[in-house]
UniProtKB/TrEMBL annotation:
It is an enzyme of class 1 (oxidoreductase). This is Nitrogenase molybdenum-iron protein beta chain. Residues 56-435 form the Nitrogenase/oxidoreductase component domain. Pfam families: Oxidored_nitro. InterPro entries: Nase/OxRdtase_comp1, NifE-like. It comes from the Bacteria.
């Protein structure tokens, strides 16, 4: 298992030519990729950007009956409060509270004490140890502590080696968590069984339930992980007949590792967002599994109901700015266009070579479409919004709060289901209500308040702080 030999995978910038800073057109970026002249850019000022540590936490936070230990200073644990609020305080966690003395003399004693204490209190099935930048700089021997305590306590103690600085692409944290999950929780060999893995890293529970409903209607048994899974779901992943990734960019590393270790093929399918895309998703799965007729009948039945429902939620022509993952972009644009909306610009958190087909589809739709790449960056997004004439913002990143403060109507799609047929209807209904009933945003906009960003910045070029990296 050569792919699992190291403590963590190679960062995405080196492995997948990932970029996290760009502003321009889709056409110009694709030309850079295909000419072999991709410019790695950096931001000289950045706002509201997540590190790999946060992504790794998200990957493991909804696994049942686990404990998370954040191995670092006390302040590193604050983000876990955010995830606990989202998962109803279900996940037990602790922070080792490394201080200056620990950073000099080593913190293995404190780590051992924390693991034993939290195990005694909670009796979990798995304990994850998430390392932080202080531990990475000091090069503490976390592996030895984890192995010793695995033998002593009789449960897996899984180290996840995040550091917060090696990669500028935060989603690398998913890869790091996945690497440790496969390395420490899955058996070396597995007998094949008649089910498929559905790899989901940040979909909400409603979305997962919708995908499971559709797969069950197709006669397919699904093992969904790591999101909202149990230890046994993870442990049997190597026995699956196929892997199905909900979002290619997020779960691609998981699928590739499972293929290398267990020779599990992947079902190539688009993200099921929107009526047409969900139908295509089901058709692709049906073709791969020899259930084409069942898929056809299911698509006809579900599509008829969904299309009829969407008719109720069409709006008058309106301009929308969209922020979402690259895999969702084309399907969400299609769904918004079905509702009579025009997408005037798009932002994605990152881009790499696994997602070029998504950019090609965007190019065929509109080669001059404004494209911003980067996590967060509300100051850049508001700059674009003011210049583009966008009337509504649809997005799933942490910038939604800052944008709402500008008096722009916001549809935050982080905690609503947009997957499958039910997700399409739910999204359409919420979008319709946002457009039709703008009282809150209008009143907020009319209220006297200091501007979030000064006029001087709003007049500047959006890529003012995006510079080509010099090595």
């Amino acid at each position: 298992m050569a792919v699992l030999r190291g403590k963590a995978p190679i960062i995405r910038e080196k492995r997948l030519s990932a970029i996290g800073a760009y502003y321009g057109t889709v056409e110009a970026l694709l030309r850079e990729f295909y000419d072999g002249n991709l410019k790695q850019r950096i931001r000289t000022f950045s706002q509201e950007t997540n590190s790999d540590i946060l992504y790794a936490l998200q990957a493991i936070n909804s696994i049942e009956n686990v404990v998370i230990i954040i191995h670092g200073p006390r302040g590193c644990g604050i983000i876990q409060n955010h995830y606990n609020n989202r998962n109803s305080l279900a996940t037990q966690w602790a922070v080792t509270n490394i201080d200056e003395e620990d950073s000099i003399l080593g913190s293995d004693v404190k780590l051992r004490k924390t693991v034993k204490s939290i195990y005694t209190e909670n009796q979990p099935e798995i304990i994850f140890i998430l390392t932080t930048s202080v531990v990475a700089i000091n090069n503490d021997d976390v592996a030895s502590v984890a192995q010793d305590l695995t033998d002593e306590l009789g449960i897996p103690i899984v180290p996840i080696y995040t550091d917060g600085f090696k990669s500028k692409i935060g989603i690398t944290g998913y890869d790091t968590a996945i690497h440790s999950i496969v390395k420490h929780l899955l058996p070396n060999r597995a007998e094949k069984e008649n089910f498929i893995n559905v790899i989901s890293l940040n979909e909400n529970k409603e979305g997962i339930e919708e995908l499971k409903r559709l797969l069950e209607a197709l006669g397919v048994e699904a093992n969904v992980f790591p999101g909202f899974s149990k230890y046994q779901d993870l442990a049997k992943a190597g026995s699956a007949a196929f892997n199905l990734v909900v979002k290619k960019g997020e779960g691609d590393y998981f699928a590739k590792v499972l293929k290398e270790v267990y020779q599990t093929p992947e079902i190539e399918a688009n993200a099921p967002v929107g009526v047409k895309a969900t139908g295509k998703w089901l058709a692709q799965i049906g073709k791969q599994l020899g259930r084409e007729q069942q898929a056809k009948e299911l698509i006809e039945k579900e599509s008829q109901h969904a299309v009829k429902a969407l008719e109720r939620y069409k709006v008058d022509r309106i301009k929308v700015y969209l922020s979402c993952e690259p895999e969702y972009a084309n399907s969400l644009i299609g769904l918004l266009e079905e509702l009579n909306a025009e997408v005037v610009g798009i932002k994605v958190p990152y881009l790499d070579i696994t997602l070029l087909d998504q950019m090609e589809k965007l190019y065929r739709k509109n080669p001059e479409l404004s494209l911003l790449i980067g996590e967060g960056q509300p100051y850049e997004q508001i700059n674009i919004l003011r210049k583009s004439g966008a009337e509504v913002y649809v997005g799933n990143d942490q910038a939604v709060g800052s944008i709402a403060l500008e008096g722009i109507p916001v549809l935050d799609i982080r905690d609503i289901n947009i997957l499958g047929y039910k997700g399409s209807i739910s999204f359409a209904e919420k979008f319709y209500r946002l457009v039709k009933y703008r009282g809150f945003s209008e009143n907020f906009n009319a209220a006297p308040k200091p501007p979030v960003y000064q006029t001087g910045w709003l007049k500047k070029n959006t890529n003012w702080y995006i510079k080509q990296e010099v090595k």
